[in-house]
Structures are given as structure tokens and as C-alpha cells.
Design brief:
With 117 residues, the chain is mostly helical. It is built from 5 helices and no strands. It has helices at 2-17, 20-45, 50-73, 79-99, 103-116. The chain is elongated and about 45 Å long.
């Protein structure tokens, strides 16, 4: 969790220096990545744990609302958007991977192998 705290602080601080639109771009990047990660979890849990699937689906609704708000509130979608979206998305993916000790990779691999079978 220390990764998330420090990473979140630094990301928030640095994007705040870029102004309101940069904060919304950052929010979009983080929420897009979280939304994709939740989609993976939902696909994995659908037949394995219906109760947990339902809980994560409700969390995903909240995260999707954050994503839509970020997209709606951006004043421009220029170079900063094109550059920062993939960078912040990658960093968010990295933080998810580190905080789950790589379980997100294991989950994706198991889903891929079950699709092939």
C-alpha cells in the first residue's frame, strides 16, 4: 500500500502542476486502467465466485462513473492527452501488478489457457 500512497501523491502533485485539464487526463488514464483490470476480474470470477463477481461489478459502476466524469470535464484532448494517457496507464498497470504480487498476470494467463481448452 505504500506504493499506492506515494505513487498517488506524486501523480496527483505532478498533474496538478499542469492544471485542471491535466488532472482530468490523469483521472481518465487511471480509471481506464482500473476499469480494464476490473473487466479481467469479472471475467475470471463469473463462474468461479458469483458473490464476489457481484461486488466487483458494483465497484466497477462507480469507477466507470469516475471515468465518464473525467472524459466529460476535459477542455482539450491534444498532445498532453496523447502522451500522458499511455504513460499513466502503464504506471497504473505496474502499480496494480506490484500490489497484487503478479496475481493479475496469473489470472490473465489462466483465463487465456481456459479459452484455448
Amino acid at each position: 500500500m505504500a506504493f499506492w500512497s506515494l505513487g498517488g501523491f506524486l501523480l496527483g502533485f505532478l498533474t496538478a502542476l499542469g492544471g485542471r485539464n491535466m488532472v482530468w487526463i490523469c483521472t481518465e488514464a487511471v480509471e481506464s486502467t482500473v476499469h480494464r483490470h476490473l473487466e479481467d476480474q469479472l471475467a475470471f470470477l463469473q463462474t468461479r465466485d458469483p458473490e464476489l463477481h457481484k461486488l466487483i461489478a458494483s465497484i466497477q459502476e462507480q469507477e466507470l462513473a469516475h471515468l465518464q466524469e473525467a472524459e466529460k470535464n476535459q477542455t482539450t484532448r491534444g498532445l498532453g492527452h496523447r502522451l500522458l494517457l499511455p504513460i499513466i496507464g502503464f504506471l497504473t498497470d505496474l502499480m496494480i501488478w506490484l500490489s497484487t504480487w503478479g496475481d493479475s498476470s496469473w489470472m490473465r494467463a489462466e483465463m487465456a489457457s481456459s479459452r484455448l481448452a
